[in-house]
Amino acid sequence: MSRFLLIFIFLDFTLSQIKENLQVQQQLIDGERKVSLISTIIMATKELQDLTIYPYKYLTSNPDPINIESSKLEATYSSLGEELQRRCICPSCHLDNLESFSELLANLEK
């Protein structure tokens, strides 16, 4: 009887090890998928950034300083516009107040 009990305990221990190994393998597979997804996103982001750069960067090795400056200004204005839009949204009701702000600026310019 004790022999069967020892065999049962051994089999139970072996099954728990197998379950643990399967869990570790699944975690490894999930981690590899996440790394693959992140690297794909990073590559796509870099490609998108490359596509948004002005063509003169690819056409000439010595780009025109005016084009570089205008590119920097456009990036600055774009980020400022996004920041202005973000700040014109009411934090409590999430209402976009950009139109009323534009009207106020137009009245101030007159």
Secondary structure layout:
Blueprint: H1 2-52, H2 56-59, H3 65-87, H4 98-109
What does this structure look like?
Residues 1-16 form the signal peptide. The chain starts with a helix and ends with a helix. The longest helix has 51 residues, at 2-52. Helix content is 82%, strand content 0%. It has two domains: 1-52; 61-110. It is elongated and about 100 Å long. It has 110 residues and is mostly helical. The chain is built from four helices and no strands.
The counted number of beta strands is 0
Query: Number of DSSP helices?
Result: 4
Distance between the termini: 101 Å
Shape: elongated
Rg (C-alpha, Å) = 30 Å
| Helical residue percent band | over 70%
Largest sheet: none
List the secondary-structure elements in sequence, H or E: HHHH
In the residues, how many domains can be counted? 2
Question: Taking all residues together, what is the mean pLDDT?
Answer: 76
The class by helix and strand makeup works out as mainly alpha
Beta percentage is under 5%
| Spans of at least 5 consecutive residues with low confidence | none
Question: How would you summarize what this structure contains?
Answer:
Keywords: Signal. This protein is mainly α.
